[in-house]
Amino acid sequence: MALHIINHPLIQHKVGLMREANISTKSFRELANEVGNLLTYEATKNIRLEPREIKSWSNNTLQVQSIKGKKITVVPILRAGLGMLDGVLALIPGARVSVVGLYRDEESLEPVAYFEKFAGSIDERLALVIDPMLATGGTMNATLDMLKARGCTNIKVLVLVAAPEGVANVEEKHPDVNIYTAALDSHLNKNGYIIPGLGDAGDKIFGTR
Ligand SMILES: O=P(O)(O)OC[C@H]1O[C@H](OP(=O)(O)OP(=O)(O)O)[C@H](O)[C@@H]1O
Ligand SMILES: O=c1cc[nH]c(=O)[nH]1
Ligand SMILES: [Mg+2]
């Protein structure tokens, strides 16, 4: 596995704004999408291209490059992952969306899966899994297990904030998966929240706090 901490100044600035205690739902939502968009730009840097012939504006035959193969599926983890989806799709508007639903039990911190609907030919696609928070890593590992059970082998994870504990957990169970994060924070508190973190990302995106 490789951990990519994307230290671009725009990302650092936007994550800093997201950490403000009294941020509005509107601002948090906008920023989650904006950072999701910038992470997508980084995570797709090395995807493969193939040549394609077109007729150009001047009526010449021209070779251009286009993304190779069955292309991409974006995998938002409900609920909070939906908060990054528009930002990701702004760069890859033709991507199929595979939705998984998991929540973290508040007592045990174990993931509970309640929904899945995957795009066709998922075994041939690059999957970009999106969730704002990688805390213990339980939710992400369960999602990666679900994808791999359907034959998906090419997977990247995009999160806004990661805890070292979660990164280590995903690294142990899924060493083939690359993680792209806007920030690697200090640690988890006793309730499994990332410190300094963002608080409850799902509540902030949906206005349910
Ligand atoms: O790494 P973990 O310890 O598993 O925690 C991370 C998960 O917790 C949050 O979801 P939550 O359970 O709050 O569900 P929600 O998105 O519906 O709010 C977050 O969006 C991740 O999915
Ligand atoms: O810090 C955390 C941990 C899990 N889920 C969140 O929304 N935030
Ligand atoms: Mg939540």
TrEMBL record:
Its cellular-component GO annotations read:
cytoplasm
Listed Gene3D superfamilies: 3.40.50.2020
CDD domains with a match to the protein in the record: PRTases_typeI
- Record bears the keyword Glycosyltransferase: yes
EC class, as a word, reads transferase
State the needed cofactors, names only: Mg(2+)
Task: Report the EC code(s) recorded for this entry.
Answer: 2.4.2.9
What are this entry's molecular-function GO terms? GTP binding; magnesium ion binding; uracil phosphoribosyltransferase activity
Keyword Phosphoprotein belongs to the record: no
* Phosphoribosyltransferase domain residues: 6-208
Supply the SUPFAM superfamilies for this chain.
Answer: PRTase-like
The activity regulation comment is:
Allosterically activated by GTP.
Q: Which domain of life is it from?
A: Bacteria
Biological process (GO) annotations held by this record are: UMP salvage; uracil salvage
Could you tell me what the cofactor note in this record states? Binds 1 Mg(2+) ion per subunit. The magnesium is bound as Mg-PRPP.
- The residue ranges crossing the membrane are none
Query: Which UniProt key words apply to this protein?
Result: Allosteric enzyme, Glycosyltransferase, GTP-binding, Magnesium, Nucleotide-binding, Transferase
**What are the binding positions for 5-phospho-alpha-D-ribose 1-diphosphate in this chain?**
79, 104, 131-139, 200
Reactions mediated catalytically: UMP + diphosphate = 5-phospho-alpha-D-ribose 1-diphosphate + uracil
Provide the residue positions that the database annotates as binding uracil.
194, 199-201
Pathway given for this chain reads:
Pyrimidine metabolism; UMP biosynthesis via salvage pathway; UMP from uracil: step 1/1
Concerning its family, UniProt says: Belongs to the UPRTase family.
The family database entries (HAMAP family) matched by this protein are listed as: Upp_B
Function noted in UniProt: Catalyzes the conversion of uracil and 5-phospho-alpha-D-ribose 1-diphosphate (PRPP) to UMP and diphosphate.
Output this protein's name.
Uracil phosphoribosyltransferase
Biological source species: Aliidiomarina taiwanensis
Q: Report the gene name.
A: upp
